# Entry
Amino acid sequence: MYEPVSNKVDFSESEQSVLEFWKENGTFLKSVEARKGADEFLFYDGPPFATGLPHYGHLLAGTIKDIVPRYQTMRGYYVDRRFGWDCHGLPVEFEVEQDLEISGKTQIEELGVDVFNERCRSIVLRYTSEWRSVVTRMGRWVDFDRDYKTMDPSYMESIWWVFKSLWDKGLIYEGKKILPYCPRCSTPLSNFETNQGYEDVTDPAITIRFKLKNEDNAYILAWTTTPWTLPSNMALAVGKDIVYARIEDKGSVYYMAKDRVSVYYRDEDEYDKMTELRGDELVGKTYEPIFPYFAHCSDEGAFRVLAADFVSTGDGTGVVHIAPGFGEDDYMLGMKEGLPAVCPVDAEGQFTDEVSDYAGRRVKEADADIMKRLKAEGKLVHRSTIVHSYPHCWRCDEPLIYRGISTWFVKVEQIKDRLVEANKEIKWVPGHLKDGRFGKWLEGARDWAISRNRYWGAPLPVWRSEDGEEVLCVGSIAELEKLGGREVKDLHKHHVDKIEIPSKEGRGMLKRVPEVLDCWFESGSMPYAQAHYPFENKDRFEAHFPADFIAEGLDQTRGWFYTLMVLSVALFDRPAFRNVVVNGMVLAEDGRKMSKRLKNYPDAMYMLDTYGADALRLYMINSPVVRAEDLRFSEDGVKHSLRHLLIPLWNAYSFFVTYANIDGWSAGDGSSGVSTNVLDRWIRSSLETLVADVATAMDGYDLQRSVRPFVRFIEDLTNWYIRRSRRRFWKSQDDDDKSQAYQTLHHVLVQLSKVAAPFLPFISESIYRNLRSEGSPESVHLCDFPIADGSFRDHTLEEAMSLVMTCVRLGRQLRSEHNLKVRQPLSVLHVVTRNSEIIDSIRELKDIIADELNVKKVAFGDHETELATLSAKADFRQLGPRFGPKVKVVAKAISEIPSNELERIVEGDSVSISVDGEEVELGPNDVVIERIPHDGLVVACEGQILVAIETALTDELVEEGLARELVNKVQNMRKEANLDVTQRIRVDVSGGEDIKRAVESNMEYVQTETLCVECSFPESSAGSEWEINGHPCRIEVIPVQVEA
RNA sequence: GGGCGUGUAGCUCAGUCGGUUAGAGCGCAUCCCUGAUAAGGAUGAGGUCCCUGGUUCGAUUCCAGGCACGCCCA
# Structure
């Protein structure tokens, strides 16, 4: 006896009880442990920040991260899955700053780095329990109890090892780089961070005149949107090949790009004279500094006109103001020309004493005064504003400034070739990312800035003497303890900064450099750090690196995918992962980003409560989002996957259980004899095909393709196999056929639950748990993934069944077109085709056609020309290459071939036709035959198959039609009265003689169909009124007790 | 501004290694079925396969240019 199954299931509730079962039995860990000792399938889980709650992007990636490991586990691999947390970094610091209502370096240091960092530690795991509950509810199996945290001492120690290894290889250097910098957070931002905060803002746009030396009253005009960088101006840049204008205007001379003149002078009358010159004629001129602060830099070559290829005439004056301390192009040019990169701005974005007049003021706030002064001094030529896209801090929304920052780098450019090589070993899904987005990114890779001037992160393990001459990199806790002479428990900044190391060269005490590492360096170190390599797990790690599989979103191309690669190549000259599945972005249904503020998407917990995790998983996986395309998330889509897959699957299962229980059938032990029934053989074959298709797609990490065959199979199972087999389950004799039906359906459902298990872990568990036989594993997730059994596959049968479905569809089309309802039996259906193979393969299945279309007989014939006219069209695929340009003429000739000639071609002969006086030989493969049903006949066709129905009705057929109608009404009444499916009844029918006669001559049929033990025909009855094929009648259904 | 991706029915998406009739589901209309009922089936309407050029006997598919959207990077 199976647990009774309602066909009205609450999936969410059912999933909850599966979760309970897993929890009580430790099923997840069992599934992992069961494979201990087997080959390992290595999965790396990228760590999310725990400071935010999970969103659909996480649920999607999480689902992919669940399906693949579940699948590989079922394939027999040992798949460890540890969750991880990204604990460090600006997001945490920012939250603490907000909590404490402080901001910036000064206030943090006033408060104390120890207080600040401990506060960070205390909030960083704030949402871990929410994560755990959502991830678990999604059905994702991942070990939260053995999670790794980037702030664990062991994790941080491995980071030090990574850093030291790179240091020893000469891949780390300290340099200066112009970086986007947030004055409020007092930190440079990474490129990925910068990009999150572009906003349109209005900035000043001013044109300034620089007075040239050695030329009276001559000025060169430059344009800028950052007046505060003007005190740091070191040069002006022009384009060598750009055409410039020399304009004489009221005794003064101005230089600017010719293309830009019209912006400043509306009319030629406004100036006196214009001559043209090329940019390189300007190069080498010198000018007077507009501010006095760095006038001494002229000794070092400042205040010259230089040539640069980044100069354009798109805006401004075609002359670029160069401040090497505040712009990347400027810096590069300055390096090349030996200019000083002055940077008179402190960590909080305020002018230093070097710029005495504005010292202590925020640079942007000084813009107005600077402009006022320039105007007063007659240096400001033009002033307006510009609306442009400018980067802002993604956390605090402060406009960023670009400035030179002392920064530590990894020499990525030096190992670029090896990165590109290593990428060749990786399988990317979708494939285009490999040479496309990721490959291109590697080819253009730049050195990677890895340090942050912040607090809550893994400190750089670098100690340095005050004079900067002696530098030491520490690679482990033990080493630091030895060098520093004290115990070390915690590697965070506020602990290790207290440790000083005595110099070996007599330079006093070495102190740690202040920076901490970028959290991307930390997450990129995950393969080593989560295992505390090389301090622990050395052999195991080395035997199993790199990972077989990772999966994250497209946004990680420049993030985790990249940092993993850089570090693994730097350390081991290998990629860190072999296969990667990249998912796209989950957008709201309106195509915009999901936004909490706009509430343009349904809450995830609501979705889970309403439709369940299986439906949500299925919806996401069966979409192009698993191939890095965008997904517009829609609740209807989730509903759809529920209705079209989960409910039908559940109904099939519930159908089986209901009747198996009625019959007291249960899966026998062993005797899984091969069924002889054609439907059984067909569904078994289809099942094996499904298994093979799913496995092939999964082995190629193509999740969408692996899910798609389920749709077809469920369709075949419910709408064909079960519907066609129902009577085999209902019939009262317990014969072999019935037993084979049960056995087949049972087998299919159990195997299907295994195939579906990685994708739909809940419903498959429910089905499996109820249907499993004694002695088999207690959970579907402890089973092996089915291996396609070729001996059960019968391609010919699958093909034939598909032809049968075509015949049935054509038959239905005919009935529908000619208004012949299916309940009315008809005498003969003709299936006509010339192809005898088709006839042979269908013949065995003709009862299905007869029953499906309610016809007494299916006749096969090959005289298709009696029913349809043949016409031919050229097969361009064949004839195109053969005839080239002449193909059109040949095609026309083919369309004019008479029907009798065509028949010969159909028979397999070759026919010769004349085209432009040339004989052309045509074989059966050269033409496509089309069949046009003759008018007035009840004929339909598709491909090579024609179907025709004889519509004439005999008295017998009419009576049978009436009987069927009656049965239909009775069934409706049974249902209306909520009768149990086994309830016996008595039926009273009062109506005309026609009905009585119809029922009497089909009495056995009526009785079996309706479980009616007695049928009587009183003059009148109290029953409800019906009309049956135009005959009014009354029917009464009376439940009766039958002795067993 | 650059790189990558996407653009196919009202909507969500398949597909086309170049072949003349481009598919599915949803939605809509009409009908059928009803012991799968949060169902099921049939039929119909609905498409310049983003645009423009090129290659070709033939382009929705390949190439080039453009447009729109998205992501990433400047």
